[in-house]
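User: Sequence in, structure out. Go.
Assistant: Echoing your sequence, followed by the structure tokens.
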Amino acid sequence: MRYHPRAGDLALAAAVLLPLVVALPRLGWPANEAGDWLAWTGRVTGILGLAMLLLAAAISIRVPGWDRPFGGLARLWRLHHGLGFGAFVLLMVHALALALAAVPLGLPVAVEVLFPPFSRGVIWLGWLAWLAMVLFLAPTFGFFGRPRYQAWKRLHLVSAVALLLALAHALPLAGETWPWWLLGMAGLAAIAWRKLGSRQARLAYRIEAVEPLARGVVELVLAPQGRRLVHEPGQFLYLTPLDKTLAAGRGEEHPYTITSAPADDRLRIGIKDLGDASHALQTVTPGSIARVEGPYGDFYGRHPSGRHRLWLGGGIGITPFVGGARDLVARGVVAAQVLLIYLTNRRERAYYLDELESIAERLAGFSVVVHDYLERGALDVAFLVEHCPGFAEREIHLCGPPAMNAHLMRLLTGQGVPRSRIHSEVLDFL
């Protein structure tokens, strides 16, 4: 499967390599001795590991719009997780390679490289940084089950401790310090913004109405209390409700997809009862205040080709397509044909379907087909060919539960659809 790098990927790769490029003239190339190669490998992996750790923090800043060069916030978060885990592995290799390089001098020397006298505090700062990384990353390995969303976000403060300790370890040992000051300030500034500054940038909205769509599904209608959020179809935001009567989630931020058209003077958000916070929002008090932060995501924006579109949505994953359909109505024109296949277990759970079918009746170029799992089983190639001949030539957007997304991805790529024309964003642990 061919990889298509984004502009943000290239900038990130250059930033990761910057400290190594600066240090290489000093490091040189090792001689042919195995010990020299191990020592060189230990230094290089230490440089790359620390750079990845600092950049993992830097790209967590979550400023609206900054995620788009990376392909949306969901993809940027995957890069963030990959950098963090990669940093952990490289820093382990860093310590072990340096110790193995000293083995020819005797085992006690190798052990002392790893665990020197406490007078060499700079080395022990490195071990403390590694311990902080272990504490921070442990929940991602599932040792203690899936962590609660807000607990996971608070745990990110441990990453700031790891960064400070890692910098305190590296700066006295580095020959060139300016790259570490640059990346270190970027990483720490990002954490400070997320924990302190971003709250000041959130916009105030009043919850005007709570419209039930089905059992356990509502759409919130919000009116701006000042500057309004400017967004594009398919994007999402972080909602922080301030209703004092909420049983859970008050003052907590959670991501939800925007279902209103960009031209709408009200903000609409579809919410399904999937956890404590989303359950409480089913009965949030109209008139209460909430704060929103965003928009994020790039579900439609980076794909301006003239190809016809195939939208595949199910569950609460139908929401970006509702926003897309409402935007088509607001603009009154469909530049390329759009077919929405609504995947549902049963029709009475297909919230928004009546509105979507009404839009299809009024708007030439937009159509809706329902796929009922209980009647037809999982979506297959025969259904796609029947309702969307030439689907493999379309630009395809999909959104739904993880199992549905995985099935559709396998089905489409198995039919030769390039991964570059399959677009999906999953708001999982953002």
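User: And one key feature?
Assistant: The chain has three domains: 7-199, 202-296, 309-423.
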